[in-house]
Design brief:
The protein is an alpha/beta fold and 228 residues long. The chain is built from 7 helices and 10 strands.
């Protein structure tokens, strides 16, 4: 059973008197442990696809199955719970809380899930160690390099052991050497069985995926193999 499955998904927005077809009958499946990259020009539908994958929006028609369950038309409250427990988000801009320590930032998803203090702290510590930040637990984001901040974001995304990781331009704010370090972490997670979807405009990033999906005008127009 695929971890992610889109069945003839359409997304249409109403702009004044005009219907904007952001996605047109997109069908896509992603197996457990697979890493795929989504590419396309501005306006191709990448952001819309990412929002649907992350349960931040619902399709106009069609089905989205996550872990075998249809999440296409669930309530806002249920979708919020799914986002907190089943989906890990990694953003280009890190989205860390500047006033909190590394450990506290990683713990945020667990706090909202109601974890008790000790298991939450133990889990966050383990995730920090996994991404090489064991010596930085008490530091704040402003005391870290961009690469270290992205490692915190990855650890935070992993804290609830999600079904999928959604990465939106994960190396976009990093220099090439630091970007390679972050991609090595994602490679390791994929090799360990984590399902990863990366939205990127960077061919060198896309090549880390098993498959590369190209969007144009809201449709999948090409699929090819990555280097993995």
């Amino acid at each position: 059973m695929p971890i992610v499955e889109f069945r003839n998904v359409r997304k249409t927005y109403r702009m004044g008197e005009t219907d904007v077809h952001a996605l047109r009958d997109v069908s896509l499946s992603v197996e457990e442990g697979e890493c795929i990259a989504i590419m396309g020009a501005s306006g191709s539908g990448k952001s819309t696809l990412l929002n649907l994958l992350g349960c931040l929006d619902r399709p106009t028609s069609g089905q989205y199955l996550l872990g075998g369950h249809d999440v296409s038309h669930l309530s806002d409250d249920v979708l919020s719970e799914i986002r907190g427990t089943k989906i890990g988000f990694i953003f280009q801009s890190y989205n860390l809380i500047a006033q909190l320590s590394v450990l506290d930032n990683i713990e945020i998803p667990l706090y909202y899930q109601g974890w008790a203090e000790k298991p939450s702290r133990d889990r966050a510590t383990a995730m920090a160690e996994q991404v090489g930040l064991a010596s930085r637990l008490r530091h704040r984001p402003t005391e870290l390099s961009g690469g270290q901040q992205q490692r915190v974001a990855i650890a935070r995304a992993l804290s609830s052991d999600p079904l999928i990781l959604l990465c939106d331009e994960p190396t976009g704010n990093l220099d090439s050497a630091t970007g390679r370090e972050v991609l090595a972490i994602l490679d390791s997670l994929s090799e360990g069985g984590k399902t990863i979807i990366i939205v990127t405009h960077d061919e060198s990033v896309a090549q880390h995926a098993h498959r590369i999906i190209h969007l144009a005008d809201g449709s999948i127009v090409k699929e090819r193999r990555g280097r993995r």
